[in-house]
């Protein structure tokens, strides 16, 4: 059901290891190539190469910033959609209490609906939670049709149907934002290609200048790997540590369950 990206076959910790290896191996390859060129082509100039290294690293930083901004904006969109859905569920619940009939049955369905929405965020429960949510939506809409057919001129029924329709639409919007709106494959490929070439050029410059391997180069490589890992974390709503808080839905659930007397 979830739209798989090019890196989804690996868990996030495994992806970090792969990214780190690619980064460090690119630096090492560039360093060894630079040493080879220095020993066999002594006339190669270093000054223009330093400018090129700065340019490629600047381009890499730009692509990282662009990709990170893309992932972060989608994260914010998922968070806003969850808040909108929680508000729509709360409004639907309140309006259900004013229906001329079937109000209590619809409220019971709404409680089950919130529980299903919260269940869907647990690992391994996504497909089952979505299936339950859609089944409950269908049941609520059937109840709304029954009430609407019996009370075609009721303003209260019309307002309830409007909020129920908005709630269903927001469910579809969250599905799109959380499962199908991912960073495109072309951007991932471009990011990895630019990262590998930029860091290889940095290592090449160090090897050509005859300097020893510096821990600063390793620190730079690890820094780039951490940023790419954060982007991948933001791009996976169901994994990692950067997840949208479900507090808005929990608050809605609590408001639907009155305290025991």
* Overall average residue pLDDT: 84
- Summarize the helix and strand pattern as letters: HHHHHHHH
Percent helix range: over 70%
Largest sheet: none
Number of helices: 8
Q: Could you say which overall geometry the principal axes of the C-alpha atoms support?
A: rod-shaped
Your description of this structure?
The chain contains 8 helices and no strands. It has about 260 residues and is mostly helical. The chain is rod-shaped, with a radius of gyration of 27 Å. The longest helix has about 50 residues, at about 45-95. It starts with 11 loop residues before the first helix and ends in a 5-residue tail after the last helix. Helices cover about 75% and strands about 0% of the residues. Helix 4 runs antiparallel to helix 5.
Summarize this structure as a short list of keywords or feature phrases.
single chain, 261 residues, mainly alpha, rod-shaped
Concise description?
It contains 8 helices and no strands. The chain has 261 residues and is mostly helical. The longest helix is centred in the N-terminal third of the chain and has 50 residues, at 47-96.
